[in-house]
Specification:
Layout lengths: L1 H18 L6 H22 L3 E11 L5 E12 L5 E4 L10 E5 L2 E11 L4 E6 L23 E6 L7 E14 L2 E10 L11 E3 L5 E9 L4 E6 H14 L5 E2 L2 E7 L6 E8 L4 H4 L7 E5 L2 E2 L3 H9 L6 E8 L2 E8 L1 E2 L1
Antiparallel strand pairs: 1-2, 1-4, 2-3, 3-6, 4-5, 5-6, 7-8, 7-10, 8-9, 9-12, 10-11, 11-12, 13-20, 14-15, 15-16, 16-17, 16-18, 18-19
Protein name: Serine protease
GO molecular function, one term: serine-type endopeptidase activity
Pfam family, one: PDZ_2
């Protein structure tokens, strides 16, 4: 929907000029479009060599009990000179053979680790070619503002790496009934077949994130922001898994209909849970997390995501007219 709005806005500019009888102003058009186009061309030249195609075949059974082979194709990109590839989740059990393809060269690869919840995996190319160019994850920058330009380089089906241009259209930590492990960036760039796992860049050339989910009805997709992406990659490399700290209580976001101020409230809490034993109660309003003020569900999930499972965190709650500090033990959810 938001991508359509962008197109309608650009079209409207042309229609207004035509209706006034004045010829289109090439200078105005170039001021708005050429810089973005030139930047996309430059980023494509810089990062095309880093993008690869990931393929693996899995055996499945259809509704008639007949076995069949399903081929999965997705995008990915190198993150170091040793041939480590960042992509969407892959099977880690023995059996499926993973291949990484680049410019017609097929290379066997093995999974390092994979996390189904975030849809992120790391692969190691068995015999990496010399001179690998890669995307550096070291500089994890804050998420960009809504409306910022986003530049994707995808690897659709059996086609060559393909540039795409869009804008950041939102930031959410859930979609419909699906809760994300942290807040994701929604971008006005569609993610078609085999394009999951594509890198997305900001105008300054830094990595904005990686595509992990598609929203085909609105020609959009979700990406995991770079800072969260690096947090996941660090855990996959160090621990072989990703911890998802959680609290055995349900937290909801409320919006005041008059002031539009947001607040976080405990709506459910499990009987006998660690949270209940710590003193948390249904109806408590959460004011801060580790001394940092917090009021939105995005902030809550991001705070949990950056914490450590099986460790205590301190939150401040308001109950009636009283504020209290509670130490809560996080579990690995």
């Amino acid at each position: 929907m938001l991508r359509r709005v962008g197109l309608i806005a650009l079209t409207s500019v042309t229609l207004v000029a035509a209706a006034s009888g004045a010829p289109p102003n090439p200078a105005l058009a170039s001021q708005e479009l050429v810089p973005g186009e030139n930047r996309l061309i430059q980023l494509y030249r810089d990062y095309r060599p880093t993008v690869v195609k990931v393929k693996f075949a899995t055996q499945t059974t259809d509704e008639n009990g007949k076995e069949k082979i399903a081929l999965t194709v997705q995008s990915g990109f190198y993150i170091d000179a040793k041939g480590t590839v960042l992509t969407n989740a892959v099977p880690t059990q023995k059996g499926p053979r993973l291949r990484v393809e680049k410019d017609g060269l097929q290379m066997l690869a093995v999974p390092i680790a994979s996390d189904a919840r975030s849809n992120i995996a790391l692969l190691q190319v068995a015999k990496p070619p010399a001179g690998i160019q890669y995307v550096d994850l070291a500089n994890a920058l804050p998420p960009p503002a809504i409306g910022s330009l986003a530049y994707a380089i995808t690897s659709p089906l059996d086609l060559a790496p393909t540039p795409k241009l869009g804008i950041v259209t939102g930031r959410e930590s859930s979609f419909s009934q699906i809760d994300f492990p942290c807040s994701y960036l929604r971008i006005g760039i569609s993610s078609g077949p085999a394009e999951g796992g594509s890198p997305v860049f900001a105008s300054d050339g830094s990595l904005m994130g990686m595509s992990v989910a598609s929203l085909p009805d609105v020609n959009s997709s979700y990406i995991v922001p770079n800072a969260s992406l690096k947090h996941i990659v660090d855990q996959l490399l160090a621990k072989g898994k990703v911890f998802h700290p959680s609290l055995d209580a349900k937290i909801i976001e409320r919006i005041d209909p008059i002031t539009l101020e947001r607040s976080l409230v405990v709506s459910e809490i499990e009987t006998g849970s660690a949270a209940k034993k710590s003193g948390l109660k249904r109806g408590d309003q959460i004011l801060s997390f580790e001394s940092k003020p917090i009021s939105s569900i995005n902030e809550w999930r991001d705070a949990l995501f950056s914490s450590q499972a099986e460790q205590f965190v301190s939150i401040t709650v308001q109950r009636g007219e009283t504020e209290s500090e509670i130490a809560l033990l996080l579990t690995d959810g």
